[in-house]
Amino acid sequence: MKKLLSLMLVLTIVLALPLVGLADTVEVTEPITITLVHSRSSGVHLDEMNRVVEEFNKTNDKGITVIAEYGGGNTEIYSRVAIDSQTGENCQIALLGFTTVGTLAAAGMLADMLPYAERDGFDLANLLECFNRGLYYGDALVALPYIRPDSIVYYNKDIWAKAGYDTIPGDIETFTEACKKIYAEQGIPGWRAGVATDFVIGAFIKSIDGAGLVAPDGMSPISLDDGALQEVLTWWNTGAQEGWIEKFTVTDDGTNRLNNFYNGQLACITDSCGSMSTILKNAAEKGLNVGFAPIPGFRGKACSSTGGSNMVIVSKNNTDQQIAASWEFLKFLLSDSQQIINSQATGYVPVTYSAGATKEMADFWAENPSYKYAYDVLEFAIEGYASPFLAAWQGEVTKVWNYVILDQSMTVEEGIAYLNAQKDVVFDPDIL
Fold first, then answer.
1. Which pLDDT belongs to residue 17?
2. Residue from 115, 88, 82, 80 nearest 15 by CA
């Protein structure tokens, strides 16, 4: 799969077409069927995807029928869209991991929805500001947020109280001291991230430089050049080797980390707010007293990472009518009523200010304050910039975390040297 992803990255960039604009928007004039490929595989997430598609199909007055197909994880969907576009059999809508939006946009495969939004008075300022950076490629609106969580810290209140803390410190220096104290006095690692460490890395880096892994124009690895990435890697590696950070593993799907937390063998973990209902349920069964906090950040400020997926309209090989029908469906997804249902059913945050301001959400949050906390943590979250190189660069950064922290085949300095050698390969403007 990694080889396939690399191949498709090259194909989509080499075969790049101009981004499809929609200066002359059209209305849906006849019954039409469009296909949505998504990543919501099972349980309440699949149920919610099927529900909203069924409701749209029954209630829209334009004769639009959406067929929803499960397409695997974010990598599989990205690869499918890239491959199918070469055969002319691609879908119209994809639920796409936000890190690969820039790659497909640079290849001219995504529709610019801005003219449609302007035509219909769709209030883009109503979208939560923290997601804005990843929705645009240049001046084109190429994505809309949909299933978007943030990452928070789940902590064992009893372990932290025993160490003298009422909550998780928001700055990395105090958090480090606390983790060291817990490890020294209780023999328990203070913290562990999940397998997808790249999102937590991004949160830490943004607390330092405000940008993240890539520069605002998407054309360079700003965090490597300004030293932020090395600072985070040094901190993480020190904690892992000294024991007050529990090492992540490449093969663990999260089970070991969560079991260690549930069994009182980890003081806190970072995880998605989308996992909140499951974590709370399992923790309650173990009698665990769980608290929540933003991720401790560098430079004295807490942070968070955004995750999840955006909806995009695939323009390549699709007609104006198919694109127009796709826009109608995405507007429906972003309506207050649908955002409320999706958030309450799954734990994903409502992605519009208006949905978050409704009485329905206020009443739900009053009964489920932990879900409101996840929404409030978005105050600390900043999306990374869209870039055609982001997914590939994240892959290289994750490799270095594995080399340095897991198998210790590299020092921190060697890991940074490796990334400096790779940056001109990844961020090559000549292939655009």
1. 43
2. 82
Any residues with CB less than 8 A from the CB of 63 and at least 6 apart, and which?
28, 30, 31, 32
Q: Residue 387 phi/psi, 5° resolution?
A: -155, 140
Cα separation, 102 vs 385, whole angstroms: 9
Q: What is the pLDDT of residue 365?
A: 95
Listed in order, the ranges of the chain carrying CATH 3.40.190.10 are: 2-149+307-380, 151-305+389-431
> 297-333, pLDDT tens digit by residue?
999 989 998 888 999 999 999 999 999 999 999 999 9
Query: pLDDT tens, 223-264?
Result: 999 999 999 999 999 999 999 999 877 666 678 889 999 999
Structure tokens at 411: 């020092």
Alpha-carbon span 45 to 41, nearest angstrom: 7
φ/ψ (deg, to 5) at 320: -60, -35
Sign, CA torsion 169/134/274/371: positive
CA atoms within a 13 Å half-sphere pointing along the CA-CB vector of 157: 9
| Cα Rg of the chain (Å, integer) | 22
Structure tokens at 245: 């950070």
Q: Are 81 and 91 in contact (CB under 8 A)?
A: yes
pTM attached to this predicted model: 0.86
Rounded to whole angstroms, the Cα distance separating 221 from 218 reads 8
Q: Which two tokens stand for residue 2?
A: 């990694």
- Give the residue ranges of DSSP H helices in 60-196: 74-87, 101-106, 114-120, 157-162, 172-186
Q: Give the model's confidence band at 16: pLDDT under 50 very low, under 70 low, under 90 confident, else very high.
A: very low
Distance, C-alpha 233 to centroid of its chain: 21
Residue type, 408: Q
Q: What is the DSSP letter of 350?
A: P
Copy the structure tokens of residue 387. Answer: 């870039």
Dist CA 201 CA 415 (whole Å)? 15
Please, what CATH class does the domain formed by 151-305+389-431 belong to?
A: alpha beta
H helix or E strand, kind and range, residue 373: helix 369-376
Contact 232, 238 (CB under 8 A): no
Q: What is the CATH number of domain 2-149+307-380?
A: 3.40.190.10
